[in-house]
Amino acid sequence: DGKDERFSKMAEATQxxxxxxxxxxxxxxGSAAGDGKDDADKLAVxxxxxPAVLAVDGKLPKGLKILQKAAEASLNRDTVGLFTPALEAxxxxxxxxxxxxxxxxxxxxxxLLETNTAIFPKAASYTVESWVLAALYHNLMFTDDTYRYARxxxxxxxxxxGLDKHxxxxxxxxxxxxxxxxxxxxxxxxxxxLAALETAIETYKYSWARPTIAALMKEAxxxxxxxxxxxxxxxxxxxxAYNAKKTAPAKSEKTLGHVSWSx
Length: 263
What we know:
- With about 260 residues, this protein is an all-alpha fold.
- The chain has 11 helices and no strands.
- The longest helix is centred in the first third of the chain and has 24 residues, at about 1-25.
- The termini are far apart.
């Protein structure tokens, strides 16, 4: 009788542990496990809960790590639709992408997205490229490493130039069709670029950054007419701030103070 009771308690404990594992797999802690349809169901549950986690600033770094882990394991053409709401939540507002606590996680996510851009539907590719610009290349500008700073700023400058393709005069050779980008995706791209320009201007006091910033700002000011409404107002403010930096008395140069990221 004593043995039967012990075995009964062990069986109950085993079942309790199994239930706990199943519950954990259905919560945003990165522990989804299983095979076949079970895997797909658990991934859907995990990713379905992530947008709410990513919407909270205090939970953003942890949520990004869970998203990164899930994407490394399961992002493909069949699952990309499951990942999209979580990605949209992560990139919902620009300042969050560059906060110190989350920047390293966004850098990793940006690298993963750049590697897997082809997985996304063509209609979403311009948005994904904007996410990569924000998460990877803009965040590279928070560094004391001149090479990484220049690498990030170069990609931002190329993207500014790339606005010509979609917003500039149509080519005289009408045989060359211009790809039409939805207005909301263009607004997102310009939002990302404006944020990067602001970061560039903040680093103008460092002499090593000035040639790079000058090249970037020239391309941006030449295309100011592409920015409309509130974005146009912000662009005007940034140009004023840049001109003020150029005419301000020189100050002693200090360390940038940002973390260098090995990307």
